[in-house]
């Protein structure tokens, strides 16, 4: 947690209790409260329970942490978690009536709620749940007599249920959205339904349907919108990316030939240090991978500028074909790079990533480290070869350790000017095998721990953590002269009035001058001035049932052919949509300027479903109400269901 200085270290070496006296390996967990400088045993706080290796630790907001126990005991009815609200000083023990299938996560809107996913089919027929703020909404799967999946919902912790849809294929949640996919007729392609109101209504997404050999994948989502990948038929390793509106109904094509490899990994990255910036890779017609960046949340994509200080290499015929290409999950999975692109909301504009310069992303060329200070418009080559890197002091300090496949490490590099100059520091006399760089989330700290191991004589590795406190090196606190005003997205150009406008707003940040060597410190907060921009056509989408006319770019009512799908939904569904044909791009806050007006507002009924009250389901009365600070919410999955966490993509 931010500002706690606490690290928890979990031991996954199980040793039989009777051998414990002989070995330190019986310690199940250690804690450090001084940024990793010293550790002590806290096994007793969790009753000497061993913590799972896979998703054993979930760190929440503030000082909350959840440890999930390894429970090999056969007669145990469910999983065990230990929750702490004080960064591990005390733990509360909770026995779950189900087994976890995924890490416990904190609810998107209210971190007091936890969301869990279980695979217990045996435990009554509760399969999955999700909460809302007023009470608890439970959405869950059930299997009917034929073994098909039914999506049901309860708002009273299992007293009564309503059926949302039958014959469900998958169900999940991301950001503020709940979704399910369904084959509406046997062996027909799947379609997706989304809810942006915690399950009150689900609407069919205007997306291409997916046959059984295709998949949908939600790349990222927040309270406003979703990025959605729809796989191409066949093993093409690419598909089409769509962006949604705020209701999850309207989807606009954002990027074609979006790379999605055989292991179902996409390189989609949210650049969190600048609003509206996303990075991903395409698989082009010539079979090469090229990087593209969007500065307007998927509205348009373009290739990355070539860094000024890096040459294109001999193979590149012309500077026109020379760009920066960034390694993503695809490359990390193939061990080409040790880390993904790094950006932090507190370090405005800063992006650090591995890449290659040339015609396309090269896996044979050694990846180098590149830095951008303006959110991805301009880049600089900064370190040769692959590195592990971290951002400290809200971007005032970057640290990096060279990635050594076999060798041992003893040196850390650091830069106070966003990677223009680097200095080295030998932090140990005895080098060790590198395992990771650990620093506090939130980037406010100036302590970083390098951890790894040294082989000991008895063959057992000895774990080592070295904590480096850069506070003793950068001693001056920043003052007003160290900061400057920076208009975000100003590198985009445009007329002075529209310069910096993205999604209807321009933002001027107060940020540290690059040449200032001083500490932002713990009290640093990102401060910005916002002003709204005049609206243009680009700030609007054509609403459901409308399309953009090629010649006038006005939104016009879809002709009768397309109306067919609309009519299908007119019967039986009461949900109505009042529309003037235009809809603002999600979270766009432009004011004045272009104001599209259709003469009449028309009513359109999207293909929606509302939960219909079903008979109360007695067998689910075993839903348990937990007498703890948190309300545990179960989500369990049957076979084909894969759910989505916020950062991790998944396919459904
Ligand atoms: C702790 O362990 C003891 C003995 O193994 C057991 O009786 C007790 O129920 C455990 N308590 C918790 C909270 O796990
Ligand atoms: C991208 O990251 C920013 C900053 O953390 C966040 O506010 C935004 O919701 C994210 N976007 C999506 C689509 O997840
Ligand atoms: C760090 O150690 C290397 C040898 O491994 C040495 O060449 C270098 O000069 C040392 N750097 C500093 C700053 O002491
Ligand atoms: C670094 O760690 C020390 C304790 O070991 C702590 O007193 C100090 O505040 C930390 N510095 C920062 C900037 O977090
Ligand atoms: C658009 O304009 C072109 C040339 O002016 C015309 O040939 C075409 O039919 C127009 N398209 C539509 C859909 O009206």
From TrEMBL:
Give me any GO biological process, just one.
Answer: vesicle organization
- Places the protein is found: Membrane
InterPro entries in alphabetical order = Sortilin_C, Sortilin_N, VPS10, VPS10-sortilin, WD40/YVTN_repeat-like_dom_sf
The primary site where this protein sits is membrane
Q: Give the UniProt keywords, A-Z.
A: Glycoprotein, Membrane, Repeat, Transmembrane, Transmembrane helix
- SMART domains from the xrefs? VPS10 (SM00602)
One GO cellular component this record assigns the protein to is: membrane
* Pfam families for this protein: Sortilin-Vps10 (PF15902), Sortilin_C (PF15901)
**Annotated transmembrane regions:** 629-648
Q: Which domain of life is it from?
A: Eukaryota
Domain named VPS10: which ranges? 19-612
* Protein name (database record): VPS10 domain-containing protein
Provide the taxonomic classification: Eukaryota, Metazoa, Chordata, Craniata, Vertebrata
């Amino acid at each position: 947690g931010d500002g706690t200085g606490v690290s928890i270290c979990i031991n996954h070496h199980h040793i039989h209790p009777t051998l414990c006296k002989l070995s330190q390996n019986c310690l199940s967990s250690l804690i450090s409260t001084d940024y990793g400088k010293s550790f002590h045993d806290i096994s007793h706080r969790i009753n000497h329970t061993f913590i799972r290796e896979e998703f054993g630790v979930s760190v929440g907001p503030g000082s909350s942490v959840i440890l999930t126990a390894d429970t090999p005991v056969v007669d145990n009815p469910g999983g065990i978690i230990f929750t702490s609200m004080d960064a591990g000083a005390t733990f509360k023990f909770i026995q779950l009536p189900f087994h976890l299938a995924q890490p416990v996560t904190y609810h998107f809107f209210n971190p007091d709620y936890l969301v869990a996913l279980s695979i217990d089919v045996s435990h009554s027929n509760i399969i999955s749940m999700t909460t809302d703020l007023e009470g608890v909404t439970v959405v869950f799967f059930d299997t009917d007599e034929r073994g098909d999946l039914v999506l049901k919902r309860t708002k009273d912790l299992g007293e009564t249920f309503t059926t949302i849809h039958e014959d469900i294929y998958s169900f999940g949640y991301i950001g503020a959205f709940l979704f399910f996919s369904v084959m509406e007729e046997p062996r027909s392609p799947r379609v997706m339904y989304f809810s942006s109101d915690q399950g009150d209504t689900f609407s069919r997404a205007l997306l291409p349907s997916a046959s059984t050999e295709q998949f949908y994948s939600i790349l990222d989502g927040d309270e406003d919108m979703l990025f959605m990948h729809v796989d191409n038929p066949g093993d093409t390793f690419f598909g089409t990316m769509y962006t949604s509106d705020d209701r999850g109904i309207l989807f606009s094509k954002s990027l074609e030939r979006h790379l999605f490899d055989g292991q179902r990994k996409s390189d989609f990255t949210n650049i969190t240090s600048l609003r509206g910036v996303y990075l991903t890779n395409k698989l082009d017609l010539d079979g090469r991978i090229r990087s593209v960046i969007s500065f307007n949340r998927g509205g348009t994509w373009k290739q990355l500028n070539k860094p000024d200080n890096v040459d294109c290499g001999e193979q590149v015929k012309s500077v026109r074909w020379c760009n920066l290409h960034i390694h993503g999950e695809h490359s990390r999975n193939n061990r080409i790079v040790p880390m993904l692109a790094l950006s932090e909301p507190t370090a405005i504009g800063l992006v650090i990533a591995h890449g290659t310069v040339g015609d396309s992303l090269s896996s044979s060329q050694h990846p180098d480290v590149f830095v951008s200070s303006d959110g991805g418009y301009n880049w600089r080559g900064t370190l040769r070869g692959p590195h592990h890197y971290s951002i400290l002091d809200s971007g005032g300090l970057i640290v990096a350790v060279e990635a050594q496949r076999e060798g041992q490490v003893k040196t850390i590099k650091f830069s106070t000017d966003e990677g223009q100059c680097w200095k080295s520091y030998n932090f140990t006399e005895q080098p060790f095998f590198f395992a990771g760089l650990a620093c506090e989330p939130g980037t406010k700290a100036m302590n970083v721990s390098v951890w790894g191991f040294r082989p000991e004589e008895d063959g057992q590795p000895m774990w080592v953590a070295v904590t480096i406190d850069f506070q003793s090196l950068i001693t001056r606190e920043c003052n007003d002269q160290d900061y400057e005003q920076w208009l975000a997205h100003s590198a985009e150009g445009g007329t002075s009035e529209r310069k910096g406008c993205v999604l209807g707003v321009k933002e001027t940040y107060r940020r540290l001058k690059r040449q200032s060597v001083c500490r932002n410190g713990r009290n640093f907060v990102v401060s910005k001035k916002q002003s709204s921009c005049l609206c243009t056509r680009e700030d609007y989408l054509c609403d459901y049932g409308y399309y953009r006319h090629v010649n006038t770019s006005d939104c016009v009512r879809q002709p009768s052919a397309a109306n067919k799908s609309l009519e299908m939904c007119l019967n039986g569904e009461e949900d109505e949509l009042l529309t003037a044909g235009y809809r603002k791009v999600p979270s766009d806050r432009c004011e004045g300027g272009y104001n599209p007006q259709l003469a009449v507002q028309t009513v359109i009924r999207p293909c929606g479903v509302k939960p219909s009250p079903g008979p109360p389901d007695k067998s689910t009365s075993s839903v348990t109400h937990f007498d703890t600070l948190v309300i545990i919410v179960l989500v369990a999955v049957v076979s084909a269901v894969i759910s989505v966490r916020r950062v991790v993509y998944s396919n459904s």
